Amino acid sequence: VKKCSLSGSWVNDLGSNMTIGAVNGDGNFEGSYHTAVSASPNEIKVSPLQGSMQRGTNQKGQPTFGFTVNWSFSDSITVFTGQCFVDNDGKEVLKTMWLLRSRVESINNDWKATRAGRNTFIRTG
Ligand SMILES: O=C(CCCC[C@@H]1SC[C@@H]2NC(=O)N[C@@H]21)NCCc1cc([N+](=O)[O-])ccc1O
User: Fold this and answer.
1) Are strands 92-102 and 76-86 parallel, antiparallel or unpaired?
2) Can you tell me the ipTM of this complex?
3) Measured in angstroms, how far is the CA atom of residue 81 from the centroid of ligand 1?
4) Which of 14, 22, 35, 103 has its CA 20 to 30 A from that of 44?
5) From CA 30, how far away is CA 68, in angstroms rounded?
6) Under a CB-based contact definition with an 8 Å cutoff, are residues 12 and 34 in contact?
7) What was the pLDDT predicted at 17?
8) How far apart are CA 7 and CA 32, in angstroms?
9) Of 76, 96, 111, which is best to mutate to test ligand 1, by the most ligand atoms within 8 angstroms of its C-beta?
10) 3-class SS at 48?
11) What is the reported pLDDT for 58?
12) Whether 2 contacts 90, CB under 8 Å
């Protein structure tokens, strides 16, 4: 199967954009994330991401990965995890699930502090 690389620019089903840099020898990478949506009252700003992808030798070119977005405009953080697939037209698709953890004032509100969801990313440009 054609290799699926994370490096480059992506857009997801919400219209959020992300750019991922080179993946280093340890499988780690950095990048930036510009979310199209937010539950924060603050103005949305580009936020840094860092993550890792699996590059096992038996990997058939469709690696699993995870990354964390440390929101620069809101006291919250999101972890994404997923896999990079090459679809039938040879296009690369990232299928992910995420957990968004918001800061809450009291442990009594901890129950409502984590949102979960899915996002699909395709390459831009
Ligand atoms: O909104 C954010 C940051 C942007 C998250 C974008 C998500 S990440 C998954 C998904 N995929 C994607 O591309 N964009 C979305 N943080 C929560 C803010 C917040 C809200 C409340 N509140 O509403 O009560 C309380 C406390 C809080 O800190």
Assistant:
1) antiparallel
2) 0.93
3) 17
4) 22
5) 10
6) no
7) 98
8) 11
9) 76
10) strand
11) 56
12) yes
Distance CA(101)–CA(25), nearest Å, equals 30
Distance 5 CA to ligand 1 centre (A): 27
Residue 116 β-bridge partners: 99
Our answer on whether the CB atom of 120 is closer than 6 Å to any ligand 1 atom is no
What are the pLDDT digits (tens) for 41-87? 999 999 999 999 997 755 568 999 999 999 999 999 999 999 999 98
CA-to-CA distance for 119 and 12, rounded, in angstroms? 6
Cα 37 to averaged position of ligand 1 atoms, centre (Å) = 8
Q: Is 96 in the pocket of ligand 1 (CB under 6 A)?
A: no
Cα–Cα dist 74/42, whole Å: 7
Look at residues 117, 55, 110, 49 and name the one whose alpha carbon lies nearest to residue 77: 49
Ligand 1 atom 23 nearest Cα: 39
pLDDT tens digits for range 85-98: 998 899 999 999 99
